[in-house]
Request: fold
Amino acid sequence: MTKFSKSQINQNFDDLHKPLNRLQAITEASRCTYCYEAPCITACPTSIDIPTFIHQIRSENIKGAAQTILSENILGGTCARACPTEILCEQACVRNHDQGKPVEIGLLQRFAVDTFLDADQPHPFKRAEPSGKRVAAVGAGPAGLAFAHRAALLGHQVVIFEAEAKPGGLNEYGLAAYKMANNFAQREVDFLMQVGGIEIQHSQRLGDNLSLAQLRQDFDGVFIGVGLAANHQLGIPGENLPGVEDATNFIATLRQTADKSSLPAGENLVVIGGGNTAIDAAVQAKRLGSANVTLVYRRGEEYMGATAWEIDLARKNGVVILLWAKPIAIHGGDAAAAIVLEKTALLEGTLQGTGNTLTIPADKVLKAVGQKYALADEPSLDLAKGKIWVNERFETNLPGVFAGGDCVHLGEDLTVQAVEHGKRAAHAMGRYLFTISALEI
Reply:
């Protein structure tokens, strides 16, 4: 096993992206051409006015830049760290064409938001007059938090019901530690809560000790932003052996462990999957000290859900990526010891096993083959594609119940998209509540 000292491991999980200093930010901001009908705005799911906030940085109006960002995306600090800007706003940047390199929008966004938070200034937004409405949000992840903040701005009283001990959802439990260093997720939640009018109740799980029917009775409106809590399984022999676990659990444990050097890394670790969660797990295992880390994906690299940047990061960290292979069994006595893989191929457009197998050592196997909606015990909600059905206003089939984020069939597994869903659902719920009130007069 690769031996890392405690200080080396701490360094391995430090900030992946070094933030810009003031001079670097102003210099980078000067590269923006302040486009008319800027394509970067269209590419941003939350429609941040990117040229304006960059111009504000260039003119050293950092507070104004932060307010421009946060007015559209209250979790702009996390999104600057974790969202794939390389395939969103930066890919759309016109500087790709004339300079071969986009403006570093993500780093500039982080600079503006972090500088504002570091200044410990009052919350930049004020609530409207009390609406007299009391609304609930289920889930304190990106969608639920964005909904709660916008609903509070509209004058509603908001109660968030959260299953875990900390708010933040994916931002707190699901992102690689080196993307969210220095407890940033909780710092951002603390900032968001400063708007007032929001209460969070923990250890509240929908379908367990929390009932949607009761919420509908107790509140004027309900927003569901529970994400995707259940993991798909491999369905192969040996899957339940000790040493085999979901990659999401592995990542959450890493995030919640202060002394990461106390965690066992595994000598030969195998990750099954091709998305960003698989990459996060593999890279973190390598940085934790696993000697051999192999990521196995059943198709070719061009089919992987992870971005090209993330795949390159894995290789730079020493992760071996094994393509066109699928697991068919995990072997071991008291614990996992090896994994059997079958080579795959596309035959007449269908992925099939070839019959050729190989066995590699694996004392730890992490499953990252996707997540699914897990509230089958709430049958009153209509589903689409295995997730909650919503219309274009984020209304479910139940009057007064809205939903957004990864748990709805419109979800795209992006923090920034979940934020946009929550924001838009809050406005839609506001219109619904006052339409209903007017009808009752």
